[in-house]
């Protein structure tokens, strides 16, 4: 298949948008699957108690499965909850179980409560390095829509934010509040955090409205907005019920190709890459 540029350091993204149903989870799992299809090692962290990313990636996530809850609350090592995801080599997931719905409250009284996911990721990256294991090129964190302590943990753990924007009425509503919140996190908890990527989703180029929303987003965020857009596609919405991303469910569909294009752009935008396609490096 295609071969994407490998970043010199793990790039850690969180997917953010305070609205539900705008395509956060769909974007998290399909961008991850597309990057892995391009030859990279990718980990999706499901940080939403609803566990939709876990479902879409075909991860075990019934109650009691070692999960991101154990990592955040019980100091379980991240490596102990990671599972291979569906059948794409290089794609892994850390699942969310129903336990995670209690974590928001449990976190309130914990020490360094905003830093728990960041520390777990850092420990894992260091451990893999010391053991000579291949590192993750990308870690993508899927979040609930609310700005609670789970989402704050993701903002502290990540360096880059992807905002999916649905090309419909009120698409930009709430966006300035989201950007303010990201500024607050940057000021107080994570100076490296920035919105690197905006992805237009559920885009129907035949409607004036979608084109207008897209133009407005590009005007406000000319550098951040990817050229690739994700069309509204039945195949994309069907895939999770088979425990698959659209990359395996229907690899030739317009949705799969759109996510591949978007992932390729993201890979090419890495400020620091080895300049080597992933497949070429793997042979070393
Ligand atoms: P969020 O995580 O922001 O709540 P989801 O990713 O779960 O949003 O998407 C909300 C719904 O929209 C889901 O049913 C999903 O399958 C569907 N969906 C997402 N992206 C697309 C798309 N490009 N085309 C069609 N349906 C989509
Ligand atoms: Mg979701």
Keywords:
single chain, 284 residues, alpha/beta, Rossmann fold, eight-stranded mixed β-sheet, two-stranded antiparallel sheet, 12 helices, 10 strands, disordered C terminus, binds adenosine-5'-diphosphate, DNA_Partitioning_ATPase
How would you characterize this protein structure?
Residues 11-194 form the AAA domain. Pfam families: AAA_31. By secondary structure, this protein is of the alpha/beta class. The protein is 39% helix and 19% strand. The chain is built from twelve helices and ten strands. The protein has an eight-stranded mixed beta sheet, with helices on both faces. Helix 1 (24-37) packs across helix 11 and helix 5 runs parallel beside helix 6. The longest helix is centred in the middle third of the chain and has 15 residues, at 116-130. The radius of gyration is 18 Å and the shape is globular. The protein starts with a strand and ends with a helix. Residues 280-284 have low confidence and may be disordered.
């Amino acid at each position: 298949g295609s071969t994407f540029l490998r970043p010199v350091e793990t790039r850690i993204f969180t997917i953010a948008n305070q609205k539900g149903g705008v395509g956060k989870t769909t974007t998290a799992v399909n961008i991850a699957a597309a990057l892995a299809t391009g030859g990279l090692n990718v980990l999706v962290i499901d940080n939403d108690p609803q566990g939709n990313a876990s479902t879409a990636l075909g991860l075990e996530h019934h109650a009691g499965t070692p999960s991101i809850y154990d990592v955040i609350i019980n100091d379980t090592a991240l490596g102990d909850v990671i599972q291979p995801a569906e059948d794409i080599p290089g794609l892994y997931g850390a699942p969310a179980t129903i336990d995670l719905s209690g974590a928001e409250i449990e976190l309130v009284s914990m020490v360094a409560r905003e830093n728990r996911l960041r520390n777990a990721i850092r420990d894992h990256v260091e451990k893999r390095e010391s053991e000579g294991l291949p590192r993750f090129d990308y870690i993508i964190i899927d979040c609930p829509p609310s700005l609670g302590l789970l989402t704050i943990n993701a903002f502290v753990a990540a360096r880059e934010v992807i905002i999916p924007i649905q090309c419909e009425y009120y698409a930009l509503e709430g966006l300035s509040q989201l950007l303010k919140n990201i500024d607050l996190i940057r000021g107080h908890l994570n100076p490296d955090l920035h919105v690197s990527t905006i992805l237009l989703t559920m885009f129907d180029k035949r409607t004036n409205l979608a084109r207008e929303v897209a133009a407005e987003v590009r005007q406000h965020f000319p550098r951040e907005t990817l050229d690739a857009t994700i069309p509204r596609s039945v195949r994309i919405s069907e895939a999770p019920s088979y425990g698959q991303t659209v990359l395996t469910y229907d690899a030739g569909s317009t949705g799969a190709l759109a996510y591949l294009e978007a992932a390729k752009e993201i890979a090419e935008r890495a400020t620091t890459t080895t300049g080597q396609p992933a497949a070429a490096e793997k042979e070393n």
